[in-house]
Amino acid sequence: MTVAGSGTRGYSVGMHDPIVIAGRSFESRLIVGTGKYASVEQTELAIDACEAEIVTVALRRVDLSDRSSGSLMSLLTRRANLGDGAKGESRRWTILPNTAGCFTADEAVRTLRLARELGIADMVKLEVIGDKDTLYPDNEQTLEAAKILVKEGFTVLPYCIDDPIVCRKLEDIGCAAVMPLAAPIGSGLGIRNPHNLSIIIERAKVPVIVDAGVGTASDAAIALELGCHAVLMNTAIAHASDPVLMAHAMKLGVRAGRAAFVAGRMHKSRYANASSPTKGLIE
Q1: How far apart are CA 273 and CA 158, in angstroms?
Q2: SS3 of 157, please?
């Protein structure tokens, strides 16, 4: 579906507006996690409902060797190896292994090296936690791990604080995207600092993906309206009363936010501006 603009610019909704990460194109701007669901079956239903293409999995919280029927790894392996999405087939997923639960650069690097040995994708989410209560990232350890992983040929997507300086350093290292938080992981507080995100977006030459803190569809829409290229979430969907319905809502929120950003919002004004023209009013 194409929505024509008032000028020469048009906008293609959904399938025709991909995000490009390290040369790879993805139609969906919604990245989702696989934890906290009531069952593996619910996980699959929710991911299908939001039509995500990139699916992240916490390597340290999953038995990577368990490929038995009904296991999470069985699901991920099956969906990652499907065809190209022809009619009658399920959407293929790109698996994004992450280092949730790692507190040092060494732990994160060793975890991702193991994932590579097991044949899991080389595009990875780097997460090095510095505090157990807030789950805020450790900037120094994240930068150290990113340097090593980039040199070893990984496509690195780092979770980081919403700090323009840290994001610039991660980009300079060679990370394929930056993933600043909106709020603490799993908090559902929404975007706490849109000003910082705006600075990061303005300066970054790689995709900016909001990671952590989204609580509902309007949060996702705001992130995309600000100009973020994508949003990553898990708890907001998995802990909803109806995860599958919330997944669908998140898909719509992301699409609406992206369309609004491309359309360009009206300028804000202190005073009213009549909707109808005032020239030529009948006295």
Answers
A1: 44
A2: strand
Sort strands 209-211 and 179-180 into parallel, antiparallel or unpaired.
unpaired
What's the rounded Cα separation, in Å, for the pair 233 and 186?
Answer: 9
- Quote the CA–CA distance of 182 and 84 in Å, as a whole number: 33
Taking every pair of Cα atoms in the chain, the longest distance, rounded to a whole number of angstroms, is: 81
Do the Cβ atoms of 126 and 142 come closer than 8 Å? yes
Yes or no: say if 27 and 50 are a contact pair by the CB < 8 Å rule: no
Tokens coding 264 = 């360009």
Convert the pLDDT of each residue in 210-258 to its tens digit: 999 999 999 999 999 999 999 999 999 999 999 999 999 999 999 999 9
Phi, psi of 52 (to 5 degrees): -70, 150
Rounded Cα–Cα distance for residues 247 and 240 (Å):
9
What is the pLDDT at residue 278?
62
pLDDT band at residue 70 using 50, 70 and 90 as cut-offs: confident
Question: 145 Cβ partners below 8 Å, 6+ apart?
Answer: 99, 105, 108, 109, 126, 128
What does DSSP say about strands 24-26 and 54-58: parallel, antiparallel, or unpaired? Answer: unpaired
Per-residue DSSP letters for 195-230? HHHHHHHHH-SS-BEEES---SHHHHHHHHHHT-SE
**Stated pTM of the model:** 0.88
Note the pLDDT of residue 84: 46
Active site residues: 125
CB-CB neighbours of 89 under 10 Å: 10
